[in-house]
Amino acid sequence: KKPDIAENIVQLAEDTDFIVESASADVVGKLLKIAVEKKKNVMIMSVGGVLDNLDLVEKIKKSKDCEIFFPSGAIVGIDGLNAARERKIQSVILTTSKPPQALAGAPYITQHGINLDSIDKPTVIFEGNCLEAVKAFPKNINISAMLSIAGVGVEKTKVRIIADPKLTRNIHKFNAKGEFGEMEVKVENVPSPANPKTSYIAALSAIATLKKMVSSVKLGT
């Protein structure tokens, strides 16, 4: 059977019990509003789009009518940050390294006239906080948004993006310090066969989240 195609996002919400967003950060705000209005559970993959709609997230937190799910995406260690947040976290620093062409088309690259083809050694392309990073690279750095929600917030989560022509994989490393101690997490991700701007494990994390929702055994924090 062919899947039904919704003509718009409102019809999508009306005709489904659970919504999985995998479009772009631009639709997240509207989707969250509809989830609240229609009392629908929703999974958000474009976590960066949540940062401009944290008020809606707070509204959903207080609501008993719908739930929002955030898969861990391309990063690992979110369970550790969730546990650490029960006490004070002092800092979270993310370093993401990618092949230059994986950053092609990002607003920051275009605005600054960066020639990705000319990069012949590891080069720091961007340094700033999470909010700045998500606006500069909306399709490349969703993991920083995920880390900020799980950790110390958008302004205190620091982000560095490196373009490395020798890489064939996306590499994400983050360091967190707090009352719990210190953690360092590194993951080397194979790019998605369908979209080299994202990591294969991001799609797999969505599948794992769906399975966890219906499983009677819950693993991890």
UniProtKB/TrEMBL annotation:
State the family it belongs to: Belongs to the L-aspartate dehydrogenase family.
Q: Which GO terms describe its biological process?
A: NAD+ biosynthetic process
Residues in Aspartate/homoserine dehydrogenase NAD-binding domain copies:
3-69
The terms under GO molecular function for this entry are:
aspartate dehydrogenase [NAD(P)+] activity; NADP binding
Pfam families in the cross-refs = Asp_DH_C, NAD_binding_3
| Residues annotated as domain Aspartate dehydrogenase | 119-207
- Name of the protein in question: DUF108 domain-containing protein
